[in-house]
Amino acid sequence: MDLVQLIYASTVSEQFKESDLSVILGSAKQRNNAESVTGILCFNGKNFMQCLEGGRRQVNTIYANILADERHQDAELLTYGPIDKRSYSQWEMGLVPQEALTHSLNLLYTASGQFAPYEMSGASAEQYLRAMRTAIPLL
Amino acid sequence: MDLVQLIYASTVSEQFKESDLSVILGSAKQRNNAESVTGILCFNGKNFMQCLEGGRRQVNTIYANILADERHQDAELLTYGPIDKRSYSQWEMGLVPQEALTHSLNLLYTASGQFAPYEMSGASAEQYLRAMRTAIPLL
Amino acid sequence: MDLVQLIYASTVSEQFKESDLSVILGSAKQRNNAESVTGILCFNGKNFMQCLEGGRRQVNTIYANILADERHQDAELLTYGPIDKRSYSQWEMGLVPQEALTHSLNLLYTASGQFAPYEMSGASAEQYLRAMRTAIPLL
Amino acid sequence: MDLVQLIYASTVSEQFKESDLSVILGSAKQRNNAESVTGILCFNGKNFMQCLEGGRRQVNTIYANILADERHQDAELLTYGPIDKRSYSQWEMGLVPQEALTHSLNLLYTASGQFAPYEMSGASAEQYLRAMRTAIPLL
Amino acid sequence: MDLVQLIYASTVSEQFKESDLSVILGSAKQRNNAESVTGILCFNGKNFMQCLEGGRRQVNTIYANILADERHQDAELLTYGPIDKRSYSQWEMGLVPQEALTHSLNLLYTASGQFAPYEMSGASAEQYLRAMRTAIPLL
Amino acid sequence: MDLVQLIYASTVSEQFKESDLSVILGSAKQRNNAESVTGILCFNGKNFMQCLEGGRRQVNTIYANILADERHQDAELLTYGPIDKRSYSQWEMGLVPQEALTHSLNLLYTASGQFAPYEMSGASAEQYLRAMRTAIPLL
Amino acid sequence: MDLVQLIYASTVSEQFKESDLSVILGSAKQRNNAESVTGILCFNGKNFMQCLEGGRRQVNTIYANILADERHQDAELLTYGPIDKRSYSQWEMGLVPQEALTHSLNLLYTASGQFAPYEMSGASAEQYLRAMRTAIPLL
Amino acid sequence: MDLVQLIYASTVSEQFKESDLSVILGSAKQRNNAESVTGILCFNGKNFMQCLEGGRRQVNTIYANILADERHQDAELLTYGPIDKRSYSQWEMGLVPQEALTHSLNLLYTASGQFAPYEMSGASAEQYLRAMRTAIPLL
Amino acid sequence: MDLVQLIYASTVSEQFKESDLSVILGSAKQRNNAESVTGILCFNGKNFMQCLEGGRRQVNTIYANILADERHQDAELLTYGPIDKRSYSQWEMGLVPQEALTHSLNLLYTASGQFAPYEMSGASAEQYLRAMRTAIPLL
Amino acid sequence: MDLVQLIYASTVSEQFKESDLSVILGSAKQRNNAESVTGILCFNGKNFMQCLEGGRRQVNTIYANILADERHQDAELLTYGPIDKRSYSQWEMGLVPQEALTHSLNLLYTASGQFAPYEMSGASAEQYLRAMRTAIPLL
């Protein structure tokens, strides 16, 4: 049962309400916990960039659920492939605080200087998320 | 707009009827034609293994539609990533004839000798599909 | 004096007239001949994709002239770098016939299946132009 | 939208006045800020060597403007290509103080020991500019 | 006489009794000492993951004995090959304390987050055992 | 379910009778057929060198059975690892005719010029068996 | 005694007379024959590009003599280094006929399209001379 | 028992008589046959260059005998190391006819154009001997 | 005159007396000093493992003398080849104290855990000797 | 204008007087300063080993002058090729004090343990000179 890592970008849909984020995060943590999937999530109020890592079947099951969730749309895979070791095993789903998505960090990896996950190559997305790990508060 | 290639495996659901294949293939060709996505499909009456290649956004849109299609389930990405050149540009969606999925060819790339896409590594899946290209009848 | 290769994409401006192509090509050949620059040009009535190769100074001088030409706009470098040997030395500026820019060839290297040079990565652009060499009529 | 890096050399024209530098720098910063382009500029009173990094379209638009600016001439690309991460994201356009262009630093990367950007290979230019980063005063 | 390293996974059989572990370990140490085989053993009450290193003949003789031992079953090689230098030469057979097989460490290298050696690729198994070295108490 | 390849050497035991070979081969073919394992076997009346390829679990189950078979002894793994594609998929267990194990072929890969599988490195064993493929009669 | 290869460019001096070429070539052949040095010479009436290969000491002795010859000047090494095998062992000093130095061949490797050895990188010079081998008449 | 290859150079001593060559060769063949060592020998009346390949112990035993043979002296190893497959398995000790050691072949790999094995690097010696294989008459 | 490194194993002969070691070492130092050969020697009362480094001719001359020395036998080359820089230039012939040849160090690089140089691959022997450097007392 | 590095060895001629060294060094510094060439010089009273680095034309001009200087002879190139960055830019021509050419340093890189530049491979010469940099007194 191969370990894989998947990073995707998506956009909130019209029916997304601000309060949905904590609901999404809560159920993501529950679901990930059940499936031993780990990861990290960036959200700026409009776009998501999320990394999922775990068993190939589990990560795909969760990605299918994510695609079916009507609160966001236009999901686009940035990178996907086998790994020997996880990068985000501390978090069922670590939420990067929105204030950590600073202009100066975005500028390092994107053309616009915005939090703009669709713009990113797979390689830039991986580096961006790794740089975000230190921004997640420890519980 | 990066070119990408995506290969996935899936399984027919209970509500799949034999006549659905040509319907699925027909609408896939239409949809792919509209989005300039090309690819190749293997099906043995139970499992699908499909390759999609085209623009990153388009391939992802189509993959989301595929995941939403209730005629199959348990979709699992085998490999995904950027390419410089397509491998299946001749086909809107080339159907590999079921009789081409022979035991001797399956044995080359799988443990069971069956058409068993979930068993395959990404590298084996790529090689398997390339070997299948000559089996598709030219129109 | 290093040999370099440069590939760019651009778009006709409003003031471009159909008859301008042969004028552009004629003066390009004259200018390239004077500077020992060689290359290849694709044009579909709307977009240009052109490769220039020669001395670093000469290629840059000509590229500056091209940028100043008001008959096209939005020039964008696809790739640039040193080479040991030219690829298009037979042509002062070889024009790929528009009918050679077929859907099936475009589909191999672009997401849209159109002649869409802005979409192309540097690597795809290099491969596309190499594939075009055989389409240029010998004089 | 790919991130790219572009380094070029150029020479002041006859109509360049000493006071132009701060004008050029001011408008470069404004323009770069608007386009989220970042970079670094060396100038010794006669030659410029400048690095631009950002989105492929934006960097090319700005380079076209630079080529059209009559205060300098003979622009020549030293290196150009895709990057995963910027190197000069702290500066809209960081000006290297002229006194930092020392003989001993120039000697490391050029044949003449002068500030002589046209002499440099792409690889030397990249290393030269990286070495210059520490010379730019923080605001 | 080539040095080799072998890592395998196995499962206790029905006839395995809790007290067997120390018996197994004791005789393993004796046997390994006699054959100058060294290694490391993880056991969670149900599954074993063991690394053996030493001469090619000796490691194979011991592995054959292990396969013949009815207290466990379903042995599966994870990785095997020549080495220039041993990794576990301090231990005739180092037992990793069961409490060191934590969820957080398992999660780093497996899909399930359990101690699940059959799930592991050879590369993950090697890294997992290396990470375990510090958990073995020195005598 | 990963595909693996395993090559081992062994020696007949005292209780081996000449007529055992066809019995062994017959049951190997049956067992391999049931487990979709394929391979090739060399035997000179005294030593065996055998390659097994198939699913990781199946190959290991069969190897455990082989180790338990008292008609041979001193089994020693020469090489083992994951593969993307089988090399011997035509044969449930292809028997290399003893007369094909010629001195001149043995000399290419061994120090003694005998059929001496224990002497071989993993790399030599793989090349030796590949060279033997053409010697197996087609049925 | 290491084998080396040396390629240099030079220019005729004012005192060079057309009849000197055959004199130079004749004495080069004699000297090379005595030192077992081999090579190839291109000359267009103004510039020389010559390759010498042989023992490190011998090639250096001959190069020193060449530098002392007042019939040419401005010698510049294009490339120099150890080789395992000579490339021009058929010729004591093979003269490439001047008519073989065609514009189309020069254009492949130089910025000017002229026979311009000083312009060439070491890599281009090596490729240019290799391409010239077929142009030398066999005796 | 690793396969190795050893190439050395040596020189006839004063007590060497012309008739010794066939004696040396005869006993070398006998000895090599007994030890399953194979190889190739070049001799020009003054210098030997010989390749021995076989088991590590056997090749070293024979090399020790060679060093003790007073008919030649100044033996010098050119290259030595493990191999997966022999290069000269057809010959107990293939003698390259002296007339095959031509000036033109020597010139390809030596500075002097002579048969001069002491001059050769290990890499040149290996290539030289491989080129000599076709010169040995088949019996 | 190429620098080479040679490592060999050997065994004391029947006529070896304990007092011979310091004699051997003394004459080795004298001889090495005269030939500018350096190295390191391990001896456990029964086997030698020695590294010689220096000019190709000198190292070979000394190795020939070593082979002719009747106080030891069965010399076997472990590794031999060109080097850019010596590893043991501090010692004319550094003697590793016998008590430094510990079981735990031997176990790292050999199958038997003994000081067993014949068992070692060339790569293991190089690493073993490097690890021994710190054990030699400085004078 | 490519940066290159050149290292050569030479020998004093009969007419060399001890006082010539400072004359040579003084004019070398002047000449190098004028041509922006930098480097390092070792001299033991008999042999020179010198590194020159700078523009390709300038380094070659100076090397030609050196060859014409009758105070030394037998100049032999050890290595030559393009560089991105100089290694000796602090010195117009840094003189390594003769007492820094110690036996122990020479032994590291040469067969004789002498200062013997002709013996050195290009790779050893580069490492030797780099090791010498710290021996040059700062002014």
Automatic annotation (TrEMBL), chains A, B, C, D, E, F, G, H, I, J:
BLUF domain span: 3-94
| SUPFAM superfamilies, alphabetized | Acylphosphatase/BLUF domain-like (SSF54975)
Q: What SMART domains does the entry give?
A: BLUF (SM01034)
Q: Which InterPro entries does this UniProt record tie to the protein?
A: Acylphosphatase-like_dom_sf (IPR036046), BLUF_domain (IPR007024)
Q: What is this protein called?
A: BLUF domain-containing protein
What is the species of this protein?
A: Zhongshania borealis
